[in-house]
Structures are given as structure tokens and as C-alpha cells.
Recover the amino acids of this structure.
């Protein structure tokens, strides 16, 4: 089998700041031309210094526009490594790649062991729990209005961690959370886990953490923090993937399928 470096195939990678840079570096090292799409300027910074063909920032414009991009840029492979809950993006890519479009591969983070976490379909599971819980919401700011509206009547004390962007802060404040119950920062992990997240839980005397079953280092950090502090972790179940989507769970698997 020929190495891809012999034909300089063009891979379009849609990813964030988690596995995206590793995938991009690996593909470049194997000789692929790589273009990357991210949703924000802050996410783009982790790709600084990589010899990418393109680095596109912003939301997708729909299947028809995506097909036009395929033709203009000569893209023959697409790797969807977006967030597991970014179902709209995945659906658009699946439609655009149908028929004679480029081969589409979904890079899916493995499901983490639940340990003491509780897997739930929606926040209704928390609304029936005893009131007065001190809940940290780590869901993404755009989901906060609906979640806060559902949980507030139960008498819970709600706190949230949101990303440092003007939009995220506006969404959190619009949800009715007071400023003193908001932590504005990016998820941080080091060799000892997630010290800032652990400190927030102690500072606010958190009893429960609600996040998504997203996998990766962020979910693993919440497992670690809640187990160490004896907190209850609630995980919103990850959406299922379309059956026709070809899925890989590691960079090695991806390389095998791309060739």
C-alpha cells in the first residue's frame, strides 16, 4: 500500500482543542495536506505553528456550501472530530459527503466508565431529587437558560462554569445566575487532575456536578474531582451516531481507514 505522502491527499479536519491538534500533527507527519475548521478564534490558537493548508473559523454554511468547498479545495477525506453533542455539524457533513462526495470518518471519543456517576437522559432526573442541592453546571453556556429554568423551582443552589467569551457570559447572566455564582475560565487539567475545578467545588460547597457524557479529558476530570470529594456526578447521555457513519476511536484507527 502506498503511503499517503506519495499523493498528497487533502484531509479536512473539523475539531476543537481536545484531540484536534494531535490528529492534525499526525496527518501532516504522514504526508497529508490538512485543512482545519474550528468554531472560534480562541480554538484556532492551538493550531498555531502547524503547516496547515487552511485554518477556517466559524460555523458551517450547510451541505450545499460544503459540497462547493469540496470542489474548490480538492478535499478527498473528511474527519469529523467535533464535540459528541455537535449533532447538527455531523448531520450536515453526512449529507454533504453522500453519493460521490469525499469519504467521511467520525472520530468518536470512547465512552468513559461510569464508576459512581449517574447517566441521565435529561435534567428531569434532578428535578425530582431533594431540594437544596448545590449543583455546579458544566454544560456550555447556551444550555444554561433551559437547565436553570428546570432546576430553579426545586430550590437548588445553582452555579456554573462558562468559557471566557462575551457571548457565554451574556448567556449565563440571561439564564438568571448571579455573577457571584459564575466561574469564567477554560477547563484546566494538569498532571494532578483539574485543580481549579476542584477548588471551585470546595469554595461553593458543591454537592452535585451536572455535565455531558462528552468523553475526553474534561469528562475524566469531573469523574476524578467528584470521586475525590464525594460528590454526585450526573452525566447527560451522549447522542447516538447515525448508523451509516464510519467511526474510529483512535488516531491509529483513523490512519488505517484513511489509506
Amino acid at each position: 500500500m502506498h503511503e499517503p505522502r506519495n499523493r498528497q491527499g487533502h484531509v479536512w479536519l473539523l475539531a476543537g482543542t481536545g484531540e484536534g491538534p494531535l490528529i492534525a500533527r499526525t496527518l501532516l507527519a504522514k504526508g497529508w495536506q490538512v485543512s482545519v475548521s474550528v468554531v472560534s478564534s480562541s480554538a484556532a490558537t492551538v493550531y498555531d505553528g502547524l503547516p496547515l493548508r487552511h485554518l477556517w473559523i466559524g460555523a458551517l454554511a450547510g451541505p450545499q456550501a460544503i459540497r462547493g468547498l469540496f470542489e474548490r479545495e480538492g478535499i478527498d477525506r473528511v474527519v469529523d472530530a467535533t464535540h459528541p453533542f455537535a449533532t447538527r455539524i455531523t448531520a450536515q457533513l453526512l449529507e454533504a459527503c453522500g453519493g460521490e462526495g469525499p469519504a467521511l470518518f467520525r472520530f468518536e471519543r470512547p465512552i468513559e466508565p461510569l464508576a459512581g456517576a449517574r447517566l441521565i437522559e435529561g435534567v428531569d432526573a434532578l428535578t425530582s431529587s431533594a431540594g437544596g442541592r448545590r449543583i455546579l453546571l458544566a454544560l456550555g453556556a447556551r444550555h444554561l437558560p433551559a437547565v436553570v429554568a428546570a432546576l430553579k423551582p426545586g430550590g437548588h443552589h445553582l452555579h456554573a462554569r462558562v468559557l471566557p467569551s462575551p457571548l457565554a457570559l451574556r448567556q449565563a447572566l440571561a439564564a438568571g445566575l448571579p455573577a457571584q455564582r459564575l466561574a469564567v475560565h477554560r477547563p484546566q487539567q494538569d498532571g494532578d487532575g483539574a485543580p481549579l475545578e476542584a477548588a471551585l467545588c470546595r469554595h461553593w460547597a458543591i454537592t452535585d456536578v451536572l455535565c455531558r457524557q462528552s468523553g475526553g479529558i474534561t469528562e475524566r476530570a469531573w469523574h476524578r474531582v467528584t470521586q475525590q470529594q464525594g460528590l454526585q456526578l450526573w452525566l447527560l447521555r451522549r447522542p447516538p451516531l447515525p448508523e451509516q457513519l464510519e467511526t474510529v476511536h483512535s488516531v491509529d484507527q483513523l490512519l488505517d481507514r484513511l489509506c
About this structure: The mean pLDDT is 89.
